[in-house]
Specification:
Blueprint lengths: L3 H11 L1 E4 L7 E4 L1 H5 L1 H12 L13 E5 L2 H13 L2 E7 L7 E8 L2 E8 L8 E9 L3 H12 L3 E10 L6 H4 L4 E6 L1
Parallel strand pairs: 3-4, 3-7, 7-8, 8-9
Antiparallel strand pairs: 1-2, 4-6, 5-6
Length: 182
């Protein structure tokens, strides 16, 4: 079974920086080479899923939420690794039934996220999974959506944290597991 260090090394080695994308001044972290490498992808999913287990390896969450869009790619296999369900948090207007919605600021704009009102049962413990923790806005908004459903956000697990943006100053007391801090 791959360990956290293997995942961190793969992430460092395979992530490609793309300057000025999606807009000038933003450096995009392209993880597609990580996803294309079976061993790297497997190690990363195992490492991300560890945040949903206790010290004895027991699963301590009921659902995994993935944030659009790259969070979907990571959260779905994390949910499978934990043997629990996956819930997508989508951009405004993408879900077909009744939703809860939260608007928030991004590092380069604004967005609105939504979740189906019945996606999370009251009292369910939820692990959030995403690719990059930047300003913390997506995590805060997703936590609000989980709580609007009656669920409990127990933590987040992310590939990379952009420490220079100080995202933890807005995420509060939420436990966040990060594989790589930049």
């Amino acid at each position: 079974m791959p360990d956290r260090r293997t995942a961190q090394e793969a992430l460092s080695r395979l992530t490609v920086d793309v300057a000025d994308w999606p807009q000038e001044g933003v450096t995009f972290k392209d993880i597609t080479p990580v996803l294309a490498d079976h061993h790297a992808f497997s190690a990363i999913i195992t490492a991300l899923a560890a945040a949903g287990r206790d010290d004895h390896g027991n699963v301590v969450v009921d659902k995994v939420v993935g944030m659009e869009a790259r969070g979907f790619i990571l959260a779905a296999p994390v949910a499978l690794a934990l043997g629990i369900g996956f819930v997508p948090v989508r951009k405004h207007g993408k879900l077909p039934r009744a939703t809860h919605a939260v608007s928030y600021a991004l590092e380069y704009g604004e967005a609105t996220l939504e979740v189906h009102r019945d996606a999370i049962e009251p009292g369910e413990r939820v692990l959030m999974v995403d690719d990059v923790l930047a300003t913390g806005g997506t995590v805060v908004a997703t936590r609000q959506l989980i709580e609007a459903c009656g669920g409990v956000a127990v933590g987040a697990s992310v590939l990379m944290e952009l420490g220079f943006l100080d995202p933890r100053s807005v995420t509060g007391d939420l436990p966040i597991a990060t594989l790589l801090t930049i």
